[in-house]
Design a protein that fits this description.
By secondary structure, the protein is α+β, with helices and mostly antiparallel strands. The protein is built from 13 helices and 15 strands.
């Protein structure tokens, strides 16, 4: 399949003779990498989770009981003009096994969606919605989240009417920048009063302190692994699972992240001195959009407020680099809202096959729960 090297001349937006192709299995999906990357770089409305490096990782493609699947749209000349990365997972529901269609990258932010070449957005969205409807014949469930309600595939699916949709209770929150004074308006006063003082205290104690981007090179993997160690430890202490695959159990991630940084699709910012990592943040970039993928800090340095300190520097850097929108992700947490100036609703697309067997299992499960709840609670003699 040819790559999308020059979308301005290599693709004719007037060519509407398009073909939908379902690509299945890790081996065949991996063959899309070059054309997928070119399409991502050409699509200024893409989102970071759609970068092929984030999806085509060995860990993601080797998850048990899951089969990667890409819905692709090609022109007559076999140029890739549209792509939707998915995975079919096998889940248990009592004695039944159900096939569930999910985003390939397990996206948990409003960055999931499709890629489309310039000039093809509407027709690609329509064709992909049609392909999703056809896929229901072999599936038991579809659970795709989180879409932006006004972006491409979500409206096309709603218009098509085959799948169901609902608004998610948690919106995305973020900041939109307008002009060179944006950082001062968003965080300047807070930075001067609190963050600046704490930063000066750190710099006095550690003259080699750095707060900057980690550039690709010999040391990148070392700092990325230190990020993984903090990330995994935080998740362990809080009882969280690594839904993004960024932790120590993903040894391939430092190389994946470095490839995305070289592509301009990601950044790793850090507060560090010597061999110590105080805090780090991974960001995804595309067009004028940047998204905070993950932020961690060492609890030993919590009194210095490293998380907000790093956020203030990152926001200033993003404005200087020309990004106009910063997405903190889902949930209006307090630290986000002090710097956010917009919220965006998110959409869930879903569908479920209600077969007789499924209804029977659900009813048996409900009966089991009622019987369990009806059982008298054993008395504790010590409380009498």
């Amino acid at each position: 399949m040819p790559s999308l090297a020059d979308p301005a001349t290599g693709i004719r937006p007037t060519d509407t003779t398009l073909h939908g192709v379902v690509v299945r299995g890790a081996t065949d999906v991996a063959k899309l990498a070059a054309a997928w990357r070119a399409l991502f770089l050409a699509d200024t409305d893409a989102r970071p989770y759609l970068h092929p490096a984030f999806n085509l990782r060995p860990m993601v493609l080797s998850r048990r009981h899951e089969v990667p699947l890409c819905l692709t749209i090609e022109t007559e000349s076999r140029q890739l003009v549209g792509l939707l990365p998915l995975v079919i997972a096998t889940r248990r529901n009592g004695p039944l096994r159900r096939k569930v269609l999910l985003p390939m990258a397990v996206a948990r932010s409003p960055s999931f969606g499709c890629l489309a070449a310039p000039g093809y957005s509407d027709i690609v969205a329509e064709r992909l919605a049609e392909m999703l409807a056809v896929l229901t014949a072999e599936l038991d469930e579809i659970d795709l989240r989180f879409f932006r309600p006004n972006a491409r595939l979500g409206p096309a699916i709603i218009k098509q009417g085959c799948l169901q949709w609902e608004m998610n209770p948690e919106p995305a929150v973020g900041s939109q920048f307008d002009g060179v004074l944006a950082w001062q308006e968003l965080v300047g006063g807070h930075a001067r009063r609190n963050i600046g003082r704490r930063r000066r205290n750190l710099e006095e104690a550690h003259p080699d302190l750095r707060i900057d981007a980690v550039e690709p090179g010999p040391d990148f993997g070392t700092w990325a692994k230190r990020f993984q160690a903090l990330y995994s430890e935080r998740n362990r202490t809080r009882g969280w699972t690594d839904g993004y695959g960024l932790g120590r159990e993903a040894p391939d991630y430092p190389a994946v992240l470095e490839a995305m940084v070289r592509d301009g699709a990601a950044s790793l910012y850090a507060i560090r001195f010597g061999d110590t990592l105080v805090a780090a943040e991974i960001l995804g970039h595309v067009g004028e959009f940047t998204h905070s993928l993950a932020t961690v800090y060492d609890p030993e340095w919590s009194s210095a407020g490293p998380g907000v300190m790093l956020h203030s520097v990152v926001l200033q850097e993003m404005i200087a680099r020309g990004f106009r929108t910063f997405n903190f992700g889902l949930r209006p947490d307090a630290y986000k809202m002090q710097w956010a100036n917009w919220t965006e609703p998110t959409l869930r697309i879903f569908w479920e096959r209600h077969s007789l067997a499924v209804r029977l299992v659900d009813r048996l499960g409900a009966l089991r729960d009622r019987l369990r709840d009806a059982q008298p609670t054993a008395r504790n003699p010590a409380e009498e």
